[in-house]
Amino acid sequence: AIDGDRLWQALMALATIGATAKGGNNRQALTELDRQGRELLTRWCEAEGLAVRFDAIGNLFARRAGRDDTAEPVVIGSHIDTQPTGGKYDGCFGVLSALEVIRTLNAHDIATQRPIELVSWTNEEGCRFAPCMMGSGVFAGQLTLEDALARRDAEGITAGEALEAIGYAGDDANRPGRFAAYLEAHIEQGPILEEAGDRIGVVTGALGLKWFDVTLTGMAAHSGSTPMDLRHNALLGATRVIEGVDRIALAQQPDGRGTVGAVQVAPNSRNVIPERVTLSIDLRHSDEAALKTMAEAFQHLLEEVEADSELTVEVTPTADYPPQYFDTDCIAAVREAAQAGGYAHRDIVSGAGHDAVFISDIAPAAMIFIPCEKGISHNEAEYASPEDVTAGANVLLHATLTLAGV
Amino acid sequence: AIDGDRLWQALMALATIGATAKGGNNRQALTELDRQGRELLTRWCEAEGLAVRFDAIGNLFARRAGRDDTAEPVVIGSHIDTQPTGGKYDGCFGVLSALEVIRTLNAHDIATQRPIELVSWTNEEGCRFAPCMMGSGVFAGQLTLEDALARRDAEGITAGEALEAIGYAGDDANRPGRFAAYLEAHIEQGPILEEAGDRIGVVTGALGLKWFDVTLTGMAAHSGSTPMDLRHNALLGATRVIEGVDRIALAQQPDGRGTVGAVQVAPNSRNVIPERVTLSIDLRHSDEAALKTMAEAFQHLLEEVEADSELTVEVTPTADYPPQYFDTDCIAAVREAAQAGGYAHRDIVSGAGHDAVFISDIAPAAMIFIPCEKGISHNEAEYASPEDVTAGANVLLHATLTLAGV
Ligand SMILES: NC(=O)NCCC(=O)O
Ligand SMILES: NC(=O)NCCC(=O)O
């Protein structure tokens, strides 16, 4: 069994980097705080005798040799970047559970047949640089390295510049080859396990996702001297898009999700009619056909708004992946580990995207969920109990041992 | 008649101070560039033999003696501060037209019965330090000097500190006493004159205004893993407010105006359900009862949104003044001057607030509008033609002569 106290202390130590006043974390990808987080994680991995390397998009790999060191590794981990008002658990729980698995194996001098690679993927959150799951996406061939490095944040800085600035641009020669399996432990980020009273979610797949950026452009003018009928108010078009996205998701229940999370208004001055509004659109569903229907309804909505306003509407897709079904052997290893630990568990589909979603395109993969209080995540109030954190890491340990062989 | 070329050259000369790449001006109140603008204007006034003084909030007064120098003065002017992406005309047209009136009287050696005071009010725009129309507001008793000087910019600098730093804090003993009349020439900042093909707007009053800040608070949660029916999405409440403000204004046509100009979403991340949205609300009407009806409908809207969502809604008033009706004698002087000049003109109500709005509380006042291209203002592309600028200054000259007596 893993050492729950040691794992909890590691979580709290990492959470001091980018700690927010409300008890959360703001350690966005490729910032100075991300650099500090990477440095601490690297130090911890090296203390366990692991060989730490970075690939060209900055993914961290830390290798523990196997008895058969030429065998394909079992890869375990997640990400340590956070949302601007993120919590302390999210991806950190997965990375530090992986570290705790290795610390436990080292402490008990347990050799595995296959090597084990701890991984910490770059920019999973995608809030500073879209798309999310950038590091695992590049690794799995979802997007090219060049494309990823050219993405810009709101200040116009590219991901490549930011990665260089924090000194973590590595070399793809450092990548491990094919994975025997990939396991990722994560908080659920939703309310299902807590409501059901289960401690472990055996994740069988993930909702498909389509992201878009929409820009509506009208004309800036003085809010006092411009009569209502002469306005080209970009914000009024934007409200129709925001409400339409909600309606489109409500038409595909229970699995449809539709969200506008980010809004930028220009010039954003109280006595100027909005000239330009940019919206981020997030559509999800467990069923590929239903997701397609949602995307079509969304396109139709934009055409409608453009047709009966004097606004121009531009749309750019920023992320797109189909519903994912994880590997049956990996799922079985997780389920058996939960059973063996005596943990109440259930099969669950992930509403959130995870690095495992992309990795499952190129390797057998599965995930382990633990509850998070009230389902709150991407929020400074995010909380997972020490008991659940310990349970999740124990399931990761035993599933890893099953897949890596002792 | 005034000298249109000389006036145009003065406008272009002042516009070199804080000129922007896109042909506009960024000469915000109480900055080093404002200091340079004040210096140039002072030099020009002194060259005309005017006595230049500053009051405690930094308003500039430049006096041309009257035949009866104990008579109440006719005061003419506007402001020279600009928006961050402002134009070259806005308030500068009014101040430099006043200077051109005086230059013309001097050139033709015309003595007026009453003294004439040129005024340039401090911080009309209110973009660096709220509220707008600060200098005329203090002068007219809308806010106290202490309150105004304590207002802070985004960097935390007070208006008092900034005024000291540029060396233009004067003494209220320098203020002229009661005004016989106040006239302000200004670009319309709206599309009405251009659409009508009129060169002069005889401004009979200004819309009343009520400004509010509204904050809607829900709960941040993950956009992928949070089912639609468990959300508290602050942005969906905000869209109802935005649309409601538009509807409330449309119900009070033709004079009702309702605008949400500024929107802040938190945490503003593409995969987080919006927790908090702040909106700026701008309601205007020419009729006090109609403006009150709009404000009541707005309050009712907020209550409705709060009642049938699980959001909390907070509202703070940030500005409030009633519709203004300018002085009939001043209006008549402007109308007759337009007629005498042979300019196509029409009565118009100002949609924007102006220094004249506050001054009209304490003195007979009116305004002269000229068209601005496509109604565009508070924008680097702002443009008024030399012909219209000349026409406006001629109307100011003749209305001033009527009110000051020859
Ligand atoms: N787990 C997680 O928050 N991933 C970010 C991508 C998503 O929005 O699902
Ligand atoms: N003229 C002008 O832009 N004044 C600012 C106050 C307003 O929004 O009307």
UniProtKB/TrEMBL annotation, chains A, B:
Keyword Hydrolase: yes
Keyword Hydrolase: yes
One MF annotation (Gene Ontology) recorded for this entry: hydrolase activity
Superkingdom: Bacteria
Span of domain Peptidase M20 dimerisation: 206-306
Pfam family, any one: Peptidase_M20
Residue stretches in coiled coil: none
Keywords: Hydrolase
InterPro entries to which the protein is assigned, alphabetical: Amidase_Cbmase (IPR010158), Bact_exopeptidase_dim_dom (IPR036264), Peptidase_M20 (IPR002933), Peptidase_M20_dimer (IPR011650)
Recorded family membership: Belongs to the peptidase M20 family.
Annotated NCBIfam families: hydantase, PRK09290.1-3, PRK09290.1-5
Protein name: Zn-dependent hydrolase
Source species of the chain: Kushneria aurantia
